[in-house]
Amino acid sequence: MRNVLPLAGVLALSGTALAQQDNVVVDMSGIAIEFPFNDQVRDSISNPDDGTPEMINLSGGYEFEITGDARVVVFLVEFYNGPIEPLFNFLEPGLGNVLRGYVRNAADGLPPAGGKTWKESFGGGLFGVEIIVTLQIETDAAGVVTIGAVDISSDLGILGSIEFSDATARLTTWDPTPTQVNEWHFNGDLSAVAESEGAAIRYLDEAAFGDILVGEDNEGVPDPTIPKDVTVAQSSFVDTAGLPGVPSLNGADDMVYLTSPAFNLADPMKVEHRRGVGLVCFPSTRPQYPGSFVGKWTMVWDLLIPASSWYEDFPSNTTPNQFLTALVQTDSDNDNGADLWLRHQGGQPGIIWAKDGDDFTGGFLPLPIAPDSWFRLAVVADEFQRGVSRVFVDGAFVGEIGSDWVAGATDPTVPTYADGEALPVGAWDTWGQFPSPWSRSSGAMNPGFDGEPVPAPMNSTFCMFADLRFGGSQPAYLANYLFTDGLMSDGEISAFGGPDAAGIMFVGGGCNDADLAEPFGTLDFSDVIAFLTAFGSMDSAADLAAPFGVYDFSDVIAFLGAFGAGCP
């Protein structure tokens, strides 16, 4: 039973309404994962850490943090008694980072009916015992904070338990930083547009990153025999004008990227040889966004899946391929199956979250897409608060699917491993100032439950068109891609419309946002006319300032500022 006092009880505690504050700490001591596996909850009224009932005003954003100790008993023997974080790192190196994070609050205050503040499920083996538990923080309409360990399943039996001892959950208001928008146009290389300085996409198997790690059974073992530079050899940049059967984008031909399949064509069935095949994205989020992982994000792709990828053994056989495109692999080093998929189910194309590529049984959303046709796909993922992603095709809302967070632990101004260990001297420059997917720390700063070092990755990237488990991603044409570390509104996505050779948000062809018309590189009256025309028709080229999707005086001011700045 949840032990949260009704508001009348809260008032009775002090005689007057409790003031909402910017920092609330809930005592988690006594929460236990043990048989019978009932939900365990604590709240800031009945279980405040300092003994005084507390409530919070979430405001526009907040930080959460779970700290303290845990005790693990298996078959009546105490195996561990120490900090919580090493237990999470034992389940997955670097996972302890998710016990602290930052959230931009969509409600900008307390939602009228309350709701999830943070929720994450964890699972893995511990001493040969399987454990699955969901940790969640909720805040009700009055500001009462509840921490829970729920939906627990395990084969610990009656002789095992994990107890949180001397542990707390802290919720603190945070003044959110502006969202960072990163965009790529693939005009002959993988460079981000000028407005996305610091963002980068690289080939997952570049030789500069070092030896690739082997497959699922030996995830952390580097293998110098695994071929490198396969992705670049199996992909290319091509002009749609020279591609028979591939239409232009919104009436204009464009240079686009033809992705590699998610396997080594020389040996497609060898699992370890597809570990490094794909792209790896290092978005520009930190240091502006302080969190080490991003639980609210938006991605947009301008894609075309050719018939040769859509059907098996095309053109002799037109049976739909089960796997089409592995859009996102949330792991930074492609160590399992892809998570976000375009695929066929029951002959219908659609999209699904399948964590680690091992469960396609639920949450499939049919999409209005077809072979040899461009479409603009947008996924707006709210893992932190709602646990769902909103999906759009060509600006139109289609439905909701699951969600997940993506890693972002590396601050490029002070790069370290996810456990805080410094990089080897010169490594950052050797990797091209980009986190190597294959490098690991010594583990000295990240001991496991048994005190042994647990080497940690950098946990700073996510993979695209990569799938270790099946090698299921087929070649597709990618014209543009956008990532932002925040939730774009339905209106903003709708304003993007369908695929466009000019880009998604950053569509100017010149030196800055005001350089909208030829001759590019010169700001003149033709740019003024182009802006006024775009503004009048609510074209995204004129949507230069927040709130995006709304065409107002802020866009005019942004244009005048860029025009006045001139071209360099």
Account of the 3D structure:
By secondary structure, the protein is mainly beta. The chain has three domains: 167 residues, no CATH class; 254 residues, Sandwich (Jelly Rolls), CATH 2.60.120.200; 58 residues, no CATH class. It contains eight helices and 29 strands. Strands 13, 15, 16, 19, 24, 25, 26 and 29 form an eight-stranded antiparallel sheet that branches. Strands 2, 3, 6, 7, 8 and 12 form a six-stranded antiparallel sheet that branches. The chain has a four-stranded antiparallel sheet with strand order 4-11-10-9, with helices on one face. A hairpin with a 5-residue loop joins strand 10 and strand 11. The N terminus is likely disordered.
Report how far the terminal alpha carbons are from each other: 65 Å
Count of runs of 4 or more consecutive helical residues: 8
Number of domains: 3
Beta-strand content estimate: 25-35%
Structural class: mainly beta
CATH C-level label of the largest domain: Mainly Beta
Q: Which CATH architecture of the largest domain would you pick?
A: Sandwich
Shape: globular
DSSP summary, beta strand count: 29
Q: Report mean pLDDT, rounded to a whole number.
A: 88
